[in-house]
């Protein structure tokens, strides 16, 4: 599902860091070595079908590499 984030991501929490991330080897191979963290937060998104929904997002992030593999985990409205 393709989507566009509207505004800021709020209530950001760290779920896992480094070796505690299940996909750490894939992340390092695909994007490079970094201090990887798995994060979650809440944001409004604009979906392909023109709807705007409030969602919980999950993604991976490393300093100097940025946000990768962002996905909608669940809809909150």
Describe this structure in words.
The chain has one helix at 24-31, and strands spanning 3-17, 37-47, 52-62, 66-75. With 77 residues, it is mainly beta. A four-stranded antiparallel beta sheet has the order 1-2-3-4, with no helix packed on it. The radius of gyration is 13 Å and the shape is elongated.
Strand content: over 45%
Strand order of the largest sheet: 1-2-3-4
Helix content: 10-25%
Topology, number of strands: 4
Number of helices, counting only DSSP H or I runs of 4 residues or more = 1
Q: Would you spell out the secondary-structure blueprint of this structure?
A:
Blueprint: E1 3-17, H1 24-31, E2 37-47, E3 52-62, E4 66-75
Antiparallel strand pairs: 1-2, 2-3, 3-4
Throw out a few tags for this protein.
1 helix; single chain; 4 strands; mainly beta; 77 residues
